[in-house]
Design goal:
The chain is mainly alpha-helical and 128 residues long. The protein has a domain of 83 residues: Methane Monooxygenase Hydroxylase, Chain G, domain 1, CATH 1.20.58. The longest helix has 29 residues. A hairpin with a 2-residue loop joins strand 1 and strand 2. Helix 2 packs antiparallel against helix 3. It is flat, with a radius of gyration of 26 Å. The chain has a two-stranded antiparallel ribbon with strand order 1-2. Helices cover 61% and strands 3% of the residues. It starts with 15 loop residues before the first helix and ends in a 6-residue tail after the last helix.
Length: 128
Amino acid sequence: MEPEVSNPQYLPGDYLPIIIQFAAALGFVVFAMVVTHLIGPKRKSAVKNASWECGIESQGDARTPISIKYFLIAILFVLFDVEIIFLYPWAVNFRALGVNGFVWMLLFMGLLLTGFYYVIRKGVLKWE
């Protein structure tokens, strides 16, 4: 009788399907870009090369400074949105994780709320 193997060894050949799929996806992207560039129309004119935004001719300098508040709100949105991604699997596996999972989620939520409190105290969410 053969002993059970508790730690299987992975060989480089085990990753071959992943490498083939990655190469196929990359090849399709390169093929699509090259073919559309070669067979696509090449009509250039002054009107076509002009900068337009929603059909309105642009005015002024494109390098006007934008308030840092905009970027802070965007970063905070992404940060809290990613944290919601962590909450969903925890909620689905709540019973399977047991008390240990609950304690870790309390720690995670505590850190999340501490960061949110810090953001509020700094006045980042106050828009003028």
